[in-house]
Structure formats: C-alpha cells, structure tokens
Amino acid sequence: MTNLDAAFSALADPTRRGILARLALGEATVMELVEPFEMTQPAISRHLKVLEGAGLIVRRVEGTKRPCRLAPSAVTEIDQWLAMLRRALEANYGRLDDVLATMTTEEVKGRS
Amino acid sequence: MSKLTLKTEGDTHVVVIRRFAAPPEAVYRAHIEPALLQKWLLGPPGWSMPVCVNEARPGGKIRYEWSNGEGAGFYLTGEYVELAPFSRIVHVERMHMPDPTPDNRVETSFAPDGSGTLMTMRMTLPDAATRTAMLSTGMETGMEASYARLDSMS
After folding, report:
1. Domain range list for chain A
2. Chain A residue at shortest CA distance from B145
3. What 3-state DSSP class applies to B87?
4. What pLDDT, on the 0 to 100 scale, is given for residue B137?
5. Do B147 and A79 touch (CB under 8 A)?
6. What is the torsional sign of CA A97, B23, A109, B55?
7. Tens digit of each residue's pLDDT (9 = 90 or more) over B43-100
C-alpha cells in the first residue's frame, strides 16, 4: 500500500510533478530528465529518490543506467481520490440536474 | 448555465461554483437525503453508492460507500458541523482509500439566483501541500495521459 502522505508531499513540488508528467509519456533515464528540466544530475536524482520513496515511480537496472517509469498502482490509488474532484464533479452535477428536474416536476404535480 | 467553476483561494481553499435550474430547497435536499444522493453522487461511470448514511444534524455522521460492482470500492466518512435549511451546510469529510486522506472542511451555500440556485462549495484543506497535491495531479496533461493509459489497461 502506498503511503498517501508521502505521495502527496512528493506531488507538492512542481519539478516532481513535471517529472511525473514526462514519465507519463514513457520511461526515461536520469540523463534524459536533466536536459528538459535544466537541473544538475544530483538534483534530478534527489527528486527521483523522493518519488521512488513515495511509491510513485519504479526503477530498473539496465547496465549502468537505472531508467524510471510511473508506478501504475500508486497513480491509480491517488487517482481514485482526485478523480472524485476533477472528473466526476461535472458528471455528478449533470446527474443532479436530472434529479432536480424530477423533483420540480413531482412538486408541480403534487400542487395541482 | 451549467458550467462548473473550480478555482483555488488563498493557500488552502478550493472553491467550486455551479448554478442549478431548481430552487435552493430542492438543491439543499438533494445534498442531504440519501434516496436523492444515491442518484447523483456517484463518481466515475459504472460506479454506484450502495451505502449512504446521512445524519443531517450538527454532529451527525456521514458515510458514503462507492462500488464499481466488480470488487473495487472506497468510502468517505464525515461529520456535520452546521446546517441552515435551505441555505448552508458545513461538514468535515475524508476519503478512505483505505488510508484516510487529510480532513477536508466543506462549506456549501445555496443562494437564490433567479428561478434557480447558485451553489458555492468552499473546501478548506489542512495545508497548502495537501491542496496542491489534490489539484495538481489531475491537471497535469501528462498525468491525464497516464490516467487514460491506466484506464485502458484496467
């Protein structure tokens, strides 16, 4: 089980969110992340360590490289909560519109 | 008319504004009556709310359980702080995934707006980092892409 506190504090940093967005496009090595973020390799490595500690990314060994990718289970867990707010809100209120329309119709019928 | 506004305020607030065609009494009731809540507060497509406990009085408990019908589920617990029919509701809530998320204090107001209602929901998170985490993930285009990919994987 991912530690949600660690995940949320890892996500609070804009660079780390940027790294996750980059990794959403596919696996990347530290060197491939250094260039777009204009940061030193140790700085990127520190961010990756935080993301790995929070269970948001996983790394594998390939010779001397350790490519990173998103940890699907971690993203799914956080997504379950966030999706309630971001994506389902409008769907919920769309349904509420329908419920309200029914209530209004029933009230009108009840009064007539 | 039905456009949803979602914005941040200060360091720890999130404000959602939505207009409804029905009067405040109907919108208020739809937020506290289980039979009505179970028709709309459902989240992703295919999900339902088999358990809906809503004790609409100060100190009253809230417990919503959602299920996708295939074994996956999560739930929300909360407590009412204040209710002013049919204009204002204050409650505290947290999601359980199953680990509880930080407490979210929610003030929902229902104001008459012509023949309809202007609903303003103001959430207060414990700190800026929690709010940033809550909002940022879904907003990153890249993350959205990863969600889409995860969706297609599941």
Report:
1. 4-86
2. A24
3. coil
4. 43
5. yes
6. positive
7. 667 788 999 999 999 999 999 998 888 887 788 999 999 999 999 999 999 888 677 7
Report the 10 Å Cβ neighbour count for A19: 27
Strands of A24-105, DSSP E: 57-59, 68-70
Domains and CATH numbers, chain B: 5-128 (3.30.530.20)
Shortest Cα–Cα distance, A104 to chain B (Å): 7
Q: Is residue B29 within a helix (H) or strand (E), and if so which, with residue range?
A: helix B24-32
**A111 or A112, higher pLDDT:** A111
ipTM above 0.85, yes or no: no
Terminal-residue alpha carbon distance, chain B: 35
| Among the partner residues A9, A70, A93, nearest to B4 by beta-carbon distance | A93
Which residue in A11, A84, A100 is closest to B137 by CB distance? A11
Under CATH, which number does the domain A4-86 receive?
A: 1.10.10.10
Q: Where are the alpha helices (DSSP H) in B87-127?
A: none
Helix (H) or strand (E) holding B84: strand B73-84
